Amino acid sequence: MATTGPEIEQLIQLLARMPGLGPRSARRAVLHLIKKKDSLMIPLSAALDRAVAAVTECSVCGNVDTVSPCHICADPRRAESGLLIVVEDVSDLWALERAGVGSVRYHVLGGVLSPLDGVGPDDLSIDSLIHRAPEFTEVVLAVNATVEGQTTAHYITDRLQPSGIRVTRLAHGVPVGGELDYLDEGTLSQALKARTLI
Amino acid sequence: MATTGPEIEQLIQLLARMPGLGPRSARRAVLHLIKKKDSLMIPLSAALDRAVAAVTECSVCGNVDTVSPCHICADPRRAESGLLIVVEDVSDLWALERAGVGSVRYHVLGGVLSPLDGVGPDDLSIDSLIHRAPEFTEVVLAVNATVEGQTTAHYITDRLQPSGIRVTRLAHGVPVGGELDYLDEGTLSQALKARTLI
Predict the structure, then answer these.
(1) Residues 126-185 of A with CB under 8 A from B
(2) Protein fold of A76-169
(3) Which ipTM score applies to this complex?
(4) Are B3 and A98 in contact (CB < 8 Å)?
(5) Which CATH number applies to B6-54: 2.40.100.10, 1.10.8.420, 1.10.287.3510, 3.30.70.1350?
(6) With helix as H, strand as E and coil as C, how does B73-141 read?
(7) Which residues of chain B have pLDDT under 50?
């Protein structure tokens, strides 16, 4: 038995499929939208329509934008550092941008190598990375510190070797604000090995 | 410095104003939408457009629906029990419907009396409740067990007294599945007073 009209029920069901929202919070979100119909629901509806029409994938780096090449790839100042940061996903690119890492360019792999899930090199944007890399002076493999991430990093390092380009990875260590007591042994031992002069 | 196009940034900002979503989770939600453009983003955009056009408030009870009177008020079987359940908000109505409380009708107050916040009887749907109540055999005040909720319940009881209609409230007691140890003293003492024969 539906509590409300079919248009509202359908909206609840679709919102419940968003990450971080379940059936209950989707219901609450829809009531919130309806209460703020003029200030939130109608603008959101219009923004979603516009985003659907505008969104595209950058043909160079794989970033999500409304233009292609995206405005990071189109910005000539981004080439100055000569750094190309390789990430698994667009969300990682956005996280690095939020951190303000500076004038760098990116390359989104679209995932990591995972033989068990049937993800091979051809399923990721690796060929285009090898093709782009010679434009840069250094390739930073900012993949996640997981087994798949590290496997992918090794694979890319091997493929880039003939080009002689400098390949680096992010530093391991203690997160800023982190407490040693809560860190795993692997991180701690890496942080000690890579200790720096104060 | 925006990481992505203005249409996408605007969508993130609007989604971040939804309950349960912040700036970070809104960003994640938008990336999820873009990844599932055909299966989620486009249907959601269409559903939101349809809901904006269809949503309305029931002129009788205050429920949110796509027709007015809403389909609870329009359903003749809902009158059989003679029960009118008074709730603060549409979300409470939906919660009771999910609980399957049976063939009842509802009245949404749109809030509770709160002199400090400047909410008086005229700001709530109390006059229309007094007007409707004589159609029913019993009015259940299912307001929240807060000070404002209880004040509102007292006020409505006073206003309904001349009509001679039976006015009740929800039982206080131990939540089903709840542990005594975690319950406050008020609930426990109410639950003991209202103990029932097994």
Answers:
(1) none
(2) Dna Topoisomerase Vi A Subunit; Chain: A, domain 2 (3.40.1360)
(3) 0.79
(4) yes
(5) 1.10.8.420
(6) CCCHHHHCCCEEEEECCHHHHHHHHHCCCCCCEEEECCCCCEHHHCECHHHCCHHHHHHHHHHCCEEEE
(7) 1
